[in-house]
Amino acid sequence: MKRRRFSRKFKIEAVKLVRERGVSVAQAGRDLDVHENVLRKWVKEFGSDQVQAFPGTSR
Fold this sequence. Notes:
Elements (H helix, E strand, L loop, with lengths): L7 H12 L5 H8 L3 H13 L11
């Protein structure tokens, strides 16, 4: 199985779903087909530095 990649925009929208709309991490993970541990990591990363979160690759 190949590793999936998610855009910065997708990650930010997923984090907003949890933080601003109050959806549980588990429910958001199921809805978005993302493992809840990955989503928790995104929430943590976004919370620590929103500007620098999810820099991606510069190709």
